[in-house]
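Batch manifest, entry 17 of 40.
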Amino acid sequence: MPEHNVYLETHFGSGAVLFNKQPSKIETANDIDCNIVNLFKVIREQPEQLAKHIQLTPYSRQEYISSFEALQGQLSDLERARVFLVRCWMAHGGKTSDRTGWRHNVDSTTFSALPDWRKLPAVVLEATERLQNVQIENLDAATLIARYNKEDCLIYSDPPYLLSTRTKRHYAHEMTNEQHETLLLALNQHRGFAMISGYNSDMYNDILRGWTRISKMATTEAAKEKCESLWLNPQIIERGYIQETLFGIV
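Output type: structure tokens
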């Protein structure tokens, strides 16, 4: 990544990029989904309790089904984090927009679901230290981008991909075309470094004219190949940063 003192991730999601990068002096993880914000708050502040609760949670269809109703009710922050992890980890493709069915195995050749869940308590504990100095926000991405409009700030955006580039909804908080346009225009005004992920689209290529797009093939959980793109703003290219991109980190 380009050298930077400030790092902003506008759509934090699983946090894969932040967890794989070197810490910066100031780091902010933002997501509009309150359940995601709560999850990482609990990982940072109650890691041992959350890890224990996950360890005691059976990998079951009923846990997955119950999670949808439970998240609509009043829960403690700790229980909300546990239930949200159930909903994400036990769903096909980690989908949170609606029910996809309980992810499980019937033979040894398919994606391993249960061992993945059993590793989660250790993953939670490992993530805790990395989050200690990370600010957690819950605001509109374009608003934050304007606030962080500084030359020493690197912004990475991984928004829900344009619905026109995929066949199904995936997230609890999808984005309209207008919201994508607002996000792209805000990134275009950023004085520092900026990167955004997505599937190739006319909208992105038109608004991000002058940016550099690089692509790679990625394999989904369903063993299907998709071409993912990463757009880099001119400031990154001017600094000679092109070889080691996020595709080499994640």
